[in-house]
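agent> fetching stored inputs for the adenosine monophosphate docking request
agent> found them:
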Amino acid sequence: MSIEIVRRLADLRSVVGGWRRQDLVTAVVPTMGALHAGHISLVQAALARADRVVVTIFVNPKQFNAATDLANYPRTEAGDIAKLQACGAHLLYAPAVEEIYPPGFATTVSVAGVSQGLCGAFRPGHFDGVATVVAKLLLQTGADLALFGEKDFQQVKVIERMVRDLDIPIEIVPCPTVREADGLALSSRNLRLSAAERAVAPRLAAILVATADRLAVGAAVATTLAAASAEIIAAGFRSVDYLELRAASDLQQHAELDRPARLLVAAWLGETRLIDNLEVTRRGVGI
Ligand code: AMP
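agent> prediction call returned; pasting tokens
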């Protein structure tokens, strides 16, 4: 079976409507293209859970902070289609900007709380852009489940909150981060790293792992995080936007590791901003 490609909402609705009439379970995997093994793992998880899988490719202008970042975002549609075909996705929805934001479009979905702090503090408006486009893609596809990567942990929390608050009838399925053999989290932005930067990049994940280990056995949170930030800079990163321990459930700040937590980081390597995060559980305390 070759993958079907649609670019118009009417065509998407007609294909998915046909599946619904046959009682087929549909999953959607929203992406911005430049597909790598992280995206493909979401498609595979979707195929394991659903009868039909829609992948969306839409480079959403509303979630970029800098025009140059949007302009430079990799666009590799032919290669993406080949990868989706190879892994067995059923439908690609790749709308033009006007299909998502027609003239007169005036609605913004803004999720308070979980959108604030972390990436929200450094990328003003980013999560409004994400929530707005994801709400549209979930409603346009009418899928039963939607899969998202924990690589973008705060994004998952924003989408979970939005879906609950707006009663969007869909199950959100978070999926683990896929990494290179050296630990670097796969990201379309890794393509921008120079060879020297690429050699430094995996230090971010390594420092996260070591820090999570220290916290897990009871190291003091504030001093451990300060030392880890210094290690990231010493490794060759230009700056650290944030390195924080947050509650895994709702990203609330906690000074102590007294509940299941997530260690989240964003740091600049040259002109490239890398993010990563890791689960932290206090060992021997039973949380
Ligand atoms: P993007 O194309 O960057 O918007 O990402 C589309 C989806 O793929 C989001 O749900 C991301 O969280 C997910 N994703 C990106 N990188 C990874 C990764 N390394 N492992 C797992 N999922 C990922």
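agent> quick read of the result: The CA atoms of residues 13 and 62 lie 24 Å apart.
agent> awaiting further instructions
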